[in-house]
């Protein structure tokens, strides 16, 4: 570990900066970091030198660093996006430069960094580039030029007080003093320290989950190392075992231990089989390259992806884990036939339910089974591949009891008086960690009488001496699910059918729209070991997902029209083509991997009998026609490429919370009739090139986000838009026929995006938008002026984009709003 240069600091580092890792509490362990590092810096000082080199050094080591100009995409709201990036980062590195504190933008960033440092376990590292932020003269110079436009002296004093507090707090932390130092050396120290610290904090594996894995990890590591730690052969290890036995968790533990030997050259790809089924091979190729290499522009063509992997990996020693592989073709698309794309010294770990190496490649797994890869390699190689198969055994009785006790009693052994009951329950778990964890969570806190009732159920449904192995685990899990409330069970089934592996923020938004208490529900399901949030994704074991899906199919296995949820392409196509869907259908998610779209002959009456349908998502499907009817119960409608010119005449959308008809053929929403959208919060009609006018917004008073980007035929905005007092985001970018905005005083509006519109003048009322933080006017060629009172926005406006506006007096605007981040 590198020592900090503390020559300018007197304080000891706060606890978060100590070298020894601390025991995180439960909530912190579950924190999902989307980024490793957030970089806070003043662009004009260090963007093109120190910070640029630091970002590259971090990236080369596989450390995901967030730099605002590198990560923000067009359409993102600048301030919320940056704040979310700070909250989602494990570390922040603040580069204090001469002009850092003269930017309110940077100072607000710094305040957020300081806020996250305290409750979220977010570690902050300052770099003193050419300034000491705690120096009073530095602060006085920085604050002297702050404008007072639209801000009372009292409010300005309060802001300065907060900013000074953040400067003193973060400036008082031990960090790196780069003044009069070799910048390359300083950057190397920073990058290596972050890398070393990340190695101490492997994600998603906590102490109680390691029962029985420690000895198994050592056995697998011996196979990886072979006779010599630095062996130059390519070693392939396959971890085999039945579902729920802990293959993925063991692979993750091994990966965390081994990746220090492969700095910036390691990759863990979970759920390979499912990912290829849902997203295609090229999706995984992109993930593989982006994790090992700083690749951004990766081809969408699978064959080109193969060539790129060959060319980039053949001379590198890499560590790759491919989890849940079910077919040789999956391996060959990612690491080549016979793994001949891997460089000398590489290690490949595979998890599989079958002995893939033995059955498909003929490897015996013995010490003598060593093969020369030179014949099939794309570039001549003079080393061998060694393959080993590791069959993961179930937990021993003692290991099972310890894991069960941790889940059921939060201790290493059963509570007094529960020893016999615990062993009776464990008799039905068959030594499988998944079954033990789920059942242990289920009986936690229950009385002895309730335990006995559970055992009675298990006797009836999961007889250990007669039942098939996987079937027994199924029944154990089903018994545990019986302890969920109706609300929790429905949420579990939605996740099992639709949202496993999906972005957690998207899933939460959809589930909330459907009326679920999302945060409470996710917490309960997580506590019961039914799901986990990892790296911003909702994850669930394959067996748990299959149990949930079987529960949906069980009563009518051959009649999908009577299933409550439709997720299978074949089932959904059959129901929509034959119009066999009935009242029982509550949710349909048809999201196909082929982005070109698959043709579906959808019956016009396909949805007519689905009176309970609450969720409908259709992506990458080309339908011949739209629906005649839609359920009044519908709460979430997302149909990309919606084929009709309007919503069905009979549709009453009073329960609809989110409506997304992107790339649609829609011309107007209601076929001339005013509809009740009283609960609608989000409307997205982006890229609907036939849309000519917006609906009347009078009945949409809960609307928060209105996205009409690239609606190139849209020429008329209904004047009732000015009544939307809860609207926080309005995007009209690319609507080149829009010449004026009939907006009133929108008290809640935070983001207004008008890029590429044909407006000539901003309305005066915009100066009264008290929460507007982002105003984007990029490429507004006809815009010749801004309101004279626009200085009123100075207190809250964070970014103004006037690039590509040739008729504007940019210098005058910059002088008026000189505290803003202005792009031009």
From TrEMBL:
TM regions (residue ranges): none
Protein's UniProt keywords contain NAD: yes
Keyword Repeat listed: yes
GO terms for MF: ADP binding
Domain TIR: 33-198
Region (Disordered): 1-25
GO biological processes: defense response; signal transduction
InterPro entries: Apaf_helical (IPR042197), Disease_R_plants (IPR044974), LRR_dom_sf (IPR032675), NB-ARC (IPR002182), P-loop_NTPase (IPR027417), TIR_dom (IPR000157), Toll_tir_struct_dom_sf (IPR035897), WH_DNA-bd_sf (IPR036390)
PROSITE patterns attached to this UniProt entry: TIR
Extent of Polar residues compositional bias: 1-11
Keywords: Leucine-rich repeat, NAD, Plant defense, Repeat
The protein, known as: TIR domain-containing protein
Organism: Linum trigynum
